[in-house]
Amino acid sequence: MFTLVQEMRDALLRSGDFYVVLKRNSDEFVLLERRVQIARTAGADMFVSFHADALASGKANGAAVYTLTEESSDKASAVLAERHNRADLLAEVDLSGQDDEIASILMELARLENTLWSQVLARNIIRGINAEVGHAYKRPIQPAGFSVLKAPEIPSVLIEVGFLSSKGNLSKLMDPKWRRKMVTGINNGIHAWILNDAADAQLRRK
């Protein structure tokens, strides 16, 4: 899995459009709070988390992209959310000088706008994956309450590239050719999202 992440980083860097910061440089655990802190310190324009989990029961296969919600929509995403949320975090937005009610409203507005952009990012990534790999999870865009998605100022998605409990998914993750297609699909999706963002910014200026 870490190999795929490194390949994703290299593909983004080759495009010349990105500065990429990995939350870890080896296959080691990083606290959930620390992962978001790294993104904030880097001034990230987007946060993408990669996972390949195993489910103890039930069957799931194919890629999926998760965006933030307080409730998950199916059993697989509920199990994964519970696992990733053993630690939680509070969004740290600088709202000094504001009273509690105003701060709450500003944070909610920021979260709503960010949620919309995270969903657009998720849709573009799934389109890219489908174009290159041709197979995604039965409901490829899923809501979930993962802690790593809770920064209100950074569009954030969690990409489940496959399930290690699926023999088919496991063999694909170990196949360099398949990983290359997956990386290309995600890369294309991210670039499409940037073009959407640029077009939207032009409309806002008008």
Please tell me about this protein's structure.
It is a single chain. Helix 1 crosses helix 6 and helix 4 packs across helix 6 (176-205). The N and C termini lie far apart (43 Å). 29% of the residues are buried. The chain is of the alpha/beta class and 206 residues long. The protein has a single domain (2-205), classed as Zn-dependent exopeptidases (Aminopeptidase). The chain has helices spanning 2-15, 32-41, 75-84, 100-132, 167-173, 176-205; strands spanning 47-53, 63-68, 136-144, 156-163. A four-stranded mixed β-sheet has the order 1-4-2-3, sandwiched between helices.
Record keyword descriptors for this entry:
about 210 residues, alpha/beta, Aminopeptidase, four-stranded mixed sheet, 6 helices
Distance from N terminus to C terminus (CA atoms, Å) equals 43 Å
Largest sheet: 4 strands, mixed
Approximate helicity band: 40-55%
Count all strands and give the number: 4
Give the low-pLDDT segments.
84-93
Whole-number average pLDDT?
79
Order of helices and strands: HHEEHHEEHH
Question: How many domains comprise the coordinates?
Answer: 1
**Can you tell me the CATH superfamily?**
Zn-dependent exopeptidases
Number of helices: 6
| Share of residues in strands | 5-15%
Described by the principal axes of the CA atoms, the overall outline is globular
CATH architecture annotation name: 3-Layer(aba) Sandwich
CATH class: Alpha Beta
